Q: What sequence folds into this?
């Protein structure tokens, strides 16, 4: 900064850099000053109108504005506008969902896509925790996007599953509970062979005999395929209820599924419960149907 | 320069910052004031004289009449040119462009940007001088001003006179006509975005929406303000194109230019008294008519400058004077610096800038033609399900799921039939064929299954085909990836 000032009458502040760059002392424009003062005046009204001054009572609150405005109230008001609009716009569709049966809903393309579109949040809240997004499934929780259904993949059956829940059970060590360790081993090999389409091989004759002796066919069907979907897994297909891992399969045969003794689960038994959603969902009369349509649309509905 | 600057000035019509400024003032230079030859003496009231370029300007200006007329043309039951933002459809006569094809807009912009560059490189600011809406509107506004208020000197006196009832009486009709033109300009602009007839109808029933009202009002005001009041100040102080184009001009560019060698030394012709030697003067008689007719108030004799919009009116003015003097025309003419320097101009196709600009223009034009020719009336998108990516089915096959979206860009209803091809054993279930109304999107779910043994990679290409059952020629293909687990 130079101290020599060749422009003494110019109104500069005496701050001069690089010989000739200097700071002038011009007043700001009038319009600028007016808006500057207007800002100060506005602040007063702002502070009166909105919650502005922090209170020292430890609640983290602010002085109430004269109009009682709060951010959360504004949010609620805005949300109400949106919700009212939504309810008004889709009232007829909701009405139809409530009055029609799921079978009828499935026949109406427009209503069906409405049900699917409005199910995503519900599915995320109530179903995805176990069955994962898009019905991808999780260990022990069935995939909903495939075509393998323990209780049937028709829309009516899916609806029934949602309403009352499902709890299959499989007795430990055969229907009579009398299979020996060796017999369990044999039958494990046999069901794995069934799934691979090799059930008829002579190598698995022992297991096949155990399958009959243990009365497995009572539920799983004489050929490993249940006669009707009633909770028993189809042993001939590629989809495993719990896991394709041999140890897990053997474990299920040994300890059963949902086996209880004196009201308590026995040790080692495989737990598998689908809760009843008629008590869990909000507005279940409509939402059960909505979700049934959604699950049916995931890729495996029959 | 400062010594003789007053020598040639007898006209208060134009003043330049240069004239008032002591250029030797170190003070000003140090502060960094840009010394520009700009008219600073109040509103420019240019004289209007007939001529070749005047005629040419009216012809080019008349192209803008189309702005006011086109909204009322109809085509196939809709407005011929309609940028329907609400329904996201652009109608240009028989052509409907949906947002999917908007890349062509980029090509149009590229084409015109380069057209601007190429024309500027060849012949200066052709856009500014003859086509620019600001130039044209200002031209029409000042033409009306002359009709209502008289010749420039009369107008200048009127401007300087005190506010009075008489003054208002003279000015009011002009302002009314200006306002009407400004309103029609704004209205016509908005009429490209909504039905023009409907817009008129709703004007008289006061049913304009807030957007329409705001756009029309602000465009009316800005048209009035820019063309009526700011005038040449817009070109000098606001418009970026003026400056950009200034930078595109080179020594080979022909622009309206004053032939210094022929014109100087300038001076009024005097009757030579006996015994006196006749002064050796150039052809310029310093009549200042070229300055008086200039709509931006520049003096072309100072050379090409950024205030000059190259409208050629000074050429008309000078030619008329030269005719009277029985001297050859062209003291001010379209010429390049190279020409004055005695160089020979290379032909157009040998100038690198022209070649590059035209090449890019050609590219943009070719892309446009390609886009228009191949514009499919149908647009297909297949969105792969993200969770789960694939599912194993009970028979051991793998299933993938897609959401198919088909956009109907044609004017007919499309019944889209979906099919899929891919590896052996591929089966698919598509939601039944979809019916899509013109301009709408139809969507459905597609399930594709492939036996696990036929999949060698975790990602296998499959091809989705959509065909219109009504019209065999309408179809679209989409390549997508079928995902499957790693083989174990």
A:
């Amino acid at each position: 900064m130079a101290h020599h000032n060749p422009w003494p009458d110019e109104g500069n502040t005496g701050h001069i850099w690089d010989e000739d760059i200097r700071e002038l002392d011009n007043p700001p424009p009038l319009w600028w000053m007016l808006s500057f003062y207007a800002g100060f005046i506005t602040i007063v009204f702002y502070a009166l109108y909105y919650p502005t001054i922090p209170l020292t009572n430890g609640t983290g609150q602010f002085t109430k504005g004269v109009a009682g405005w709060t951010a959360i109230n504004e949010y609620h008001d805005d949300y109400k506008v949106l919700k009212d609009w939504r309810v008004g716009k889709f009232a007829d569709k909701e009405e139809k969902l409530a009055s029609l049966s799921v079978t009828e809903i499935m026949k109406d393309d427009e209503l069906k896509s409405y049900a699917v579109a409005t199910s995503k949040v519900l599915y995320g809240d109530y179903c995805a925790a176990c069955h994962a997004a898009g019905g991808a499934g999780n260990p022990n929780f069935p995939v909903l996007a495939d075509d393998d259904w323990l209780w049937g993949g028709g829309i009516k059956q899916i609806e029934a599953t949602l309403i009352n829940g499902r709890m299959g059970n499989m007795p430990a060590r055969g229907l009579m509970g009398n299979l020996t360790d060796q017999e369990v081993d044999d039958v494990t090999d046999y069901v794995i062979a069934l799934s691979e389409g090799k059930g008829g091989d002579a190598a698995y004759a022992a297991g096949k005999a155990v399958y009959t002796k243990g009365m497995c066919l009572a539920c799983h069907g004489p050929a490993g395929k249940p006669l009707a979907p009633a909770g028993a897994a189809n042993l001939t297909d590629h989809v495993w209820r719990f896991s394709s891992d041999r140890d897990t399969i053997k474990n299920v045969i040994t300890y059963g599924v949902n086996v209880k003794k004196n009201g308590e689960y026995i040790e080692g038994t495989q737990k598998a419960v689908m809760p009843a959603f008629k008590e869990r969902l909000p507005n279940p009369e409509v939402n059960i149907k909505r979700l049934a349509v959604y699950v049916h649309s995931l890729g495996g509905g029959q | 320069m400062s010594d003789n600057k007053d020598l040639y000035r007898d006209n208060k019509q134009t003043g330049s910052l240069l004239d008032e400024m002591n250029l030797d003032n170190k003070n000003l230079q140090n502060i960094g004031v840009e010394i520009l030859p700009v008219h600073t003496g109040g509103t420019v009231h240019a004289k209007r004289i007939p001529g070749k370029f005047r005629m040419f300007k009216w012809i080019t200006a008349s192209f803008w009449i189309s702005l006011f007329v086109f909204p009322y043309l109809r085509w196939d039951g809709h407005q011929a040119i309609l940028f329907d933002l609400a329904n996201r459809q652009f109608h240009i006569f028989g052509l409907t462009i949906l947002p999917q094809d908007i890349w062509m807009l980029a090509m149009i912009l590229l084409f015109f940007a380069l057209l601007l560059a190429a024309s500027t490189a060849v012949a200066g600011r052709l856009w500014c001088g003859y086509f620019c809406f600001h130039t044209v509107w200002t031209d029409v506004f000042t033409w009306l001003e002359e009709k209502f208020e008289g010749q420039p000197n009369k107008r200048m006196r009127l401007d300087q006179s005190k506010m009075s009832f008489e003054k208002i009486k003279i000015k009011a009709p002009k302002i009314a006509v200006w306002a009407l033109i400004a309103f029609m300009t704004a209205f016509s602009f908005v009429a490209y975005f909504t039905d023009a007839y409907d817009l008129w109808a709703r004007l008289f029933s006061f049913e304009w929406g807030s957007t329409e009202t705001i756009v029309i009002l602000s465009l009316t005001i800005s048209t009035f303000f820019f063309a009526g009041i700011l005038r040449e100040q817009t070109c000098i102080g606001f418009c970026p194109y003026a400056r950009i184009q200034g930078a595109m001009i080179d020594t080979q560019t022909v622009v309206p230019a004053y032939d210094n060698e022929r014109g100087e030394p300038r001076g009024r012709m005097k009757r030579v008294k006996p015994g006196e030697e006749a002064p050796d003067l150039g052809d310029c008689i310093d009549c200042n008519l070229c300055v008086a007719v200039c709509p931006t108030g520049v003096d072309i004799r100072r050379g090409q400058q950024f205030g000059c919009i190259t409208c050629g009116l000074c050429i008309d003015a000078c030619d008329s004077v030269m005719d009277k003097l029985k001297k050859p025309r062209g003291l001010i003419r379209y010429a390049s610096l190279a020409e004055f320097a005695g160089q020979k101009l290379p032909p157009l196709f040998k100038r690198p800038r022209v070649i590059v600009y035209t090449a890019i223009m050609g590219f943009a034009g070719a892309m446009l033609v390609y886009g228009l020719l191949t514009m499919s009336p149908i647009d297909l998108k297949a969105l792969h399900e993200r969770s789960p990516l694939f599912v194993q089915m009970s028979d051991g096959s793998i299933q993938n799921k897609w959401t198919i979206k088909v956009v109907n860009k044609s004017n007919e209803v499309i019944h889209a039939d979906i099919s899929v091809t891919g590896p052996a054993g591929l089966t698919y279930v598509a939601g039944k064929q979809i019916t899509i109304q013109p301009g709408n999107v139809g969507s459905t779910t597609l399930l594709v299954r492939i036996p696990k043994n036929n999949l060698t990679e975790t990602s296998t290409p499959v091809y989705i085909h959509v065909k219109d059952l009504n019209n065999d020629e309408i179809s679209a293909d989409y390549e997508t990836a079928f995902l499957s687990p790693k083989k174990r």
Q: What stands out?
A: Residues 169-271 of chain A form a domain with the Cytochrome Bc1 Complex; Chain D, domain 2 fold (CATH 1.10.760.10). The mean pLDDT of chain A is 90. Chain A has 13 helices and six strands.
